[in-house]
Amino acid sequence: MKMVMMFMVMMMVSESSMIDQTCKETPDFNLCVSLLNSDPRGSSADTSGLALILVDKIKVLATKTLHEINGLYKKRPELKQALGECSRRYKTILNADVPEAIEAISKGVPKFGEDGVIDAGVEASVCEEGFKGKSPLTSLTKSMQKISNVTRAIVRMLL
């Protein structure tokens, strides 16, 4: 019984250290650890698996942001043009960038995965700039930029 407990503790330490070691190589250690520990797949994932988890987080955030944009159309009609641009940008993240990253990472072609992840951050930045400093989406776009930067760092480890 003691042997089984020791093995389980050692496994938890090694799982945690894989996430910790990987996240130390990213621009935001705390965000990285938080995102990966919040997903049950993180505890047993290799570097590719960790990257895919983060791409899933990009997808979830893009979906959430798109829902927010759709709600703002009614509440803030004066922002219709900027919201329309953001809607197109976030649809690009969901329909092009995320699938490209998932396919590339899954097939062992991380360079193209990196391109998709980088583009997600760029799309969020361009969306934010369209409001000329008066964006109701700032916290969501900043989150997308941060998650994209962390994901990119992990994808680069696969190159």
Write up what this structure looks like:
There is one protein chain. By secondary structure, this protein is an all-alpha fold. The protein has a single domain (45-156), classed as Butyryl-CoA Dehydrogenase, subunit A, domain 3. The chain has 6 helices and no strands. α1 (2-23) crosses α2, α3 (47-75) runs antiparallel to α6 and α4 runs antiparallel to α5. It is elongated. 33% of the residues are buried. Residues 2-15 have low confidence and may be disordered.
Please, how many domains? Answer: 1
Helical content stands at over 70%
State the secondary-structure class.
mainly alpha
**Number of DSSP-assigned strands:** 0
- Shape-level CATH architecture: Up-down Bundle
Determine the strand fraction and express it as a percent band: under 5%
CATH-defined fold name: Butyryl-CoA Dehydrogenase, subunit A, domain 3
Based on CA atoms alone, the radius of gyration comes out at 18 Å
Order of helices and strands: HHHHHH
The largest sheet, given as strand count, sense and whether it forms a barrel, is: none
The shape is: elongated
Regarding CATH, which class? Mainly Alpha
Protein name: Pectinesterase inhibitor domain-containing protein
Pfam family, one: PMEI
GO molecular function, one term: enzyme inhibitor activity
Family: Belongs to the PMEI family.
